[in-house]
Amino acid sequence: xxxxxxxxxxxxxxxxxxxxxxxxxxxxxxxxxxxxxxxxxxxxxxxxxxxxxxxxxxxxxxxxxxxxxxxxxxxxxxxxxxxxxxxxxxxxxxxxxxxxxxxxxxxxxxxxxxxxxxxxxxxxxxxxxxxxxxxxxxxxxxxxxxxxxxxxxxxxxxxxxxxxxxxxxxxxxxxxxxxxxxxxxxxxxxxxxxxxxxxxxxxxxxxxxxxxxxxxxxxxxxxxxxxxxxxxxxxxxxxxxxxxxxxxxxxxxxx
Length: 255
Known about the structure:
This protein is α+β, with helices and mostly antiparallel strands and 255 residues long. Helix content is 37%, strand content 25%. Strand 2 and strand 3 form a beta hairpin. The N and C termini lie far apart (74 Å). The model is unreliable at 233-239 (pLDDT under 50).
């Protein structure tokens, strides 16, 4: 009876590992698909706020015009896909542009740090609709630019990058500050499966009758943790950016 139970548990281990392998194969296949995708991130720095401008005898101006709010913005835009993105991949009826909430005016916008000058990435303010058009020849994987912007809203008035990439949809906003670590994922996966096997052998040496629940519990914990890591990376990163403008974006100053 004990031999039969042990044989059944070993079969269960093989089945769990097989299922886990299939799930991971699907995940890595989806990640290896050829995609064209734009991502961006935003940091805002309040220079003048409504509370500051209400101080007695305080007057803030920009190019001679009074302002009650003045916010500097860093925006980093990059190709987070794994295929070169040409400007012809952008829908003509919904081109890539920077947009702000109503009644917030763009005062200045410029490309500060391009990752590759050959991209010919430029921004042009369109005062009639209070947006800024983004043009480029092409963007290779990881390529993009750091864009600086001044506007008359508060720091809560976040600019967004809108438009449509054919077959992919709108640019995605991401939280910066997380770097992809493929080797780390491999180590986590290897350690997780090793933990399952070690736990299984240890429990079986004590009591084969509690091996199945413990093994299932450990496998669920490992799988949940791995899925959390993968989802966190996808949510926070969206792709690796060129170091030249990543450092400028994460710097504490707004210039």
